[in-house]
Amino acid sequence: MKRFIIPAIIIVVFAALCPGQRRSRVSPLKIIQLTEPSLTGSVSFEEALAKRRSVRQFTNQQLKPAQISQLAWAGQGITEPVRGLRTAPSAGATYPIKLYFATQDGLFVYNTEEHSLEQTSNLDVRGRLTTTNAPCNILIAGSERNLAVQFRGEANKYMLLEAGHIAQSIQLQAVCLGLGSVPIGGFDARGVKRVCRLSRGLEPLLVISVGYPAAETKTEDDKEETDKTEDRKEKKAVLIVSRENFRDEELFETRGILTNAGVKTVVASSKTGAIRGMLGRLAEATILVKDVVVDDYDAVIFIGGSGAMEYFHSRFAWNIARETVQKKKVLGAICIAPAILANAGLLSGVRCTSFLSERDRLQRAGALYTGVPVERDGLIITASGPMASVQFGRAVADALAEK
């Protein structure tokens, strides 16, 4: 197996510091000067969009230096040196995002100005970031604090928007390089922060696994047998929604992500038939909440919106949530819906998040409130609101894929 080797390696040794000099929290073990990025390619933008897929199985072939260089540049590379413009837009040119590359040779942070990688650890931490076998995991981390002075209450939104721009650029660049990728939002944020030794105020937002897609070499007989097995193992999720004023994005975007991941979804409410969201979209509830049988599903998900308050003190909702935990199934809640889990006594000592209005309620119930967009603690997954719907759906899908 070829190791990840890039020519032009500058070894930086920090032997003795001058008296009174303050040691940085993480000194780079070595600095790798990346090759110049290519500004032309053979794959059109339209082709890249059409070919982009989530790939979860990879070969053991390591990425080439030029590929890592191109992925780093696609995410945050400088496109106009004089003005310091980058490949991804940033609110107020604050650039609150940092990119970390985890390879078999260690963990590296991308230095945009120098187009280089600074090694922060010589340990292989890939397996502690995701469960994929990808040769490279790219961590997108952000600092809301960098935006807070200028944008105050909008800081989190702008940070997530920038992270989204960067993630899409990296995934499309992977397609152009003949690589596969998958974004992973369901991970232990506290554990990742500890493993990567992120500085205070810098939070992990998303991990993108990148590598060569594993080729499928099934015969027709193998394919038929695999199809039968997959049918038997089809995952099912029930989305519990209020009879009115649910949050549209939280239902439709979450359900869309699960459907694309091959998960069969059912909508349950306190009434069957048409139910209307806060933004006016209609959904069809096919089962009553009181008739939900937890054994029939692999995941139970509570959708938010102001209408979700009808389940805050619902014995039916509480019992469903408690049974879901008892039977070690995936339990999700978004927006104000984590309050249902708190009232059911399920969040004591659990890392979680929610819409800000529910923070005190969750903390009184003993929850370890983090306030990040999506939080996963074991099989309990919570999210802050509509803007985190896609990330929430992916976290639930990833958790189901692991079971």
The residue-averaged pLDDT reads: 87
Shape: globular
The end-to-end span amounts to 31 Å
**How many domains would you count in the coordinates?**
2
Number of helices: 12
List keywords for this structure.
eight-stranded antiparallel beta sheet, 12 helices, disordered N terminus, 22 strands, 403 residues, Rossmann fold, 2 domains, seven-stranded mixed beta sheet
Plain-language structure description:
This protein is 31% helix and 24% strand. It has helices at 45-51, 65-76, 126-129, 145-151, 155-176, 189-196, 220-232, 248-260, 315-326, 338-343, 359-364, 389-402, and strands at residues 9-10, 31-33, 78-80, 85-86, 97-103, 106-111, 116-121, 136-142, 180-184, 203-211, 236-240, 244-246, 264-269, 273-277, 282-285, 287-288, 299-302, 330-334, 351-352, 368-369, 374-377, 380-383. The strands form five sheets. The chain has an eight-stranded antiparallel sheet, sandwiched between helices. It is α/β, with parallel strands linked by helices. It folds into two domains: 9-211, 3-Layer(aba) Sandwich (NADH Oxidase), CATH 3.40.109.10; 220-402, 3-Layer(aba) Sandwich (Rossmann fold). The chain is globular and about 60 Å long.
